[in-house]
Amino acid sequence: MTTAPGLPDPGRCAVMGVLNVTPDSFSDGGRYEFEADALVHAHRMWQRGADLIDVGGESTRPGASRVDAETEIERVLPVIRALASDGVAMSVDTTRAAVAAAALEAGAQVINDVSGGLADPDMARVAAESGVPWVLMHWRGHSKDMNALATYDDVVTEVRDELTARVDAALAAGVRAEAIVLDPGLGFAKRAEHDWALLSRLDVLLALGFPVLVGASRKRFLGRLLADADGEPRQASEREDATAAVSTLAAAAGAWGVRVHEVGASLDAVAVAAAWQSGVVRVDPSSPANTGSTGSPDA
Ligand code: PMM
Questions:
Q1: Is the CB of 240 within 6 Å of ligand 1?
Q2: What is the C-alpha to C-alpha distance for residues 53 and 265, in angstroms, rounded to an integer?
Q3: Pairing state of beta strands 90-93 and 52-56?
Q4: Which of 67, 99, 113, 114 has the most ligand 1 atoms within 8 A of CB, as the residue to mutate?
Q5: Sheet holding 110-113: strands in order across?
């Protein structure tokens, strides 16, 4: 599998760090404060080794209401401009062509479209004209309605076929095949059993021949899996270990990338998966662990 120019190819599963630039994600001290918090967080993820920072200005959580395009642009553009000037590689998480176009102009290099081109008919044109990688996620409708759309006879086959239709539409609009990335859309019009079925048959999506991105981080299906004895789902902040476990398994299965909130654990996870699979470790000679200076009880 060759990846498109602009799509990170770190020689292991790529790790995309989530940067939700929405007022409820950061301090509510006003516009400047929440932008400043977002930049600090993005730099932390980048320094830790994230391959791409995924900048989004609209919440896609189940039940979330939409914001207008101007608001979305006002949220993401200053952050993208600032991070681009610091050399940070970014995707823009948007379903709107106008937001994607403005973000690319400001320095983003990948379009991450959770609607796979369905929400905005103009997105395919922006993707085709810019030539940047375009993540087509499986999607059936906006967040407000998506739980009602979670009906499948065979989720793996239906998601594969619906994504194939999105690929065909993208190619017909002039998007190059090398620019396409697929994503099963965990939690989007899916119940927990659908998410697990898709993960257990990731090979079916990989067989389509495109890089595959997996976005499992902190999602509800992990909370359900780890519910307490009373059946109360594990809260989102306590789902990091399970997220890293999914990153390990997704990398071992051949995913191109994982989209996560906590990049450190997943970077370690995908490094383990790569070393396990190849039997060869990529050693960083400058790391204290390899200079004998830590005094740690290494065997
Ligand atoms: N999930 C969310 C947002 N954007 N993009 C892709 N490609 N895949 C995903 O699974 C995905 C996404 C929702 O998660 P968040 O609200 O925790 O960011």
A1: no
A2: 16
A3: parallel
A4: 114
A5: 180-183, 134-137, 110-113, 90-93, 52-56, 14-20, 257-260, 213-214
Query: Both tokens of residue 149?
Result: 């759309």
From the CB of 20, is ligand 1 less than 6 Å away? Answer: yes
Summarised one tens digit per residue, pLDDT across range 53-112 is 999 998 877 667 788 999 999 999 999 999 999 999 999 999 999 999 999 999 999 999
- The verdict on whether 190 is a catalytic residue reads no
Please report which residue ranges of 142-239 form alpha helices under DSSP H: 155-172, 192-200, 202-206, 220-225
Can you list the domains of the chain with their CATH numbers?
14-290 (3.20.20.20)
Contact 256, 1 (CB under 8 A): yes
**How far, in Å, CA of 133 to CA of 52, rounded?**
12
Q: What is the pTM of this model?
A: 0.93
